[in-house]
Specification:
5-stranded parallel sheet; alpha/beta
Length: 149
């Protein structure tokens, strides 16, 4: 369990949040999952401001980012992360229902590490989240010194 880190989930659909949390919990893939429901809240978490001003320091092991977020959309969040020296090394997986090619292109051009389209069926969705969790929270080695656990 020591290798597992914190996952930041930026998702506004409560059903998708619940499914994601269930899949991660079922497979014990994170010590902690922080959920934010809009892009502004995700940035508040990353910058330790607002309701997150007293949170534990350090960046998440991975961020699962929906594109269609209220207040600040996912692409804007991603661009902000990639333009900040303190945040740019965080692996960001776009986890979205969008099959649009332009969303995929914009995501990769903005620095996404992966682009995953949410499957409609629960079993497939749970498997996709499990595989993401296994890779990003367990298998992947973060850049040295970039993530405190």
């Amino acid at each position: 369990m020591d290798k597992l880190g914190r996952i930041l989930l930026a998702e506004d659909d409560e059903d998708d949040v619940e499914l994601t949390l269930m899949a991660l919990e079922e497979h014990k893939l994170a010590n902690e999952v922080v959920v934010t429901f809009d892009g502004e809240e995700a940035l508040d978490y990353l910058y330790c401001r607002g309701k997150f001003d007293t949170r534990a320091t350090g960046n998440p092991s991975v961020m699962l980012l929906d594109l269609k977020l209220p207040k600040v959309d996912g692409l804007q969040v991603l661009q902000k992360i990639r333009s900040d020296e303190r945040l740019k090394m965080i692996p960001v997986v776009v986890l979205t229902s969008s099959h649009e090619e332009m969303d995929k292109i914009r995501s990769y051009k903005s620095g996404a590490n992966a682009y995953v389209v949410k499957p409609m069926n629960f079993h497939m969705f749970a498997n996709a989240v499990r595989e993401l969790g296994v890779f990003w929270a367990i298998i992947n080695e973060p850049p040295p010194g970039s993530i405190k656990r």
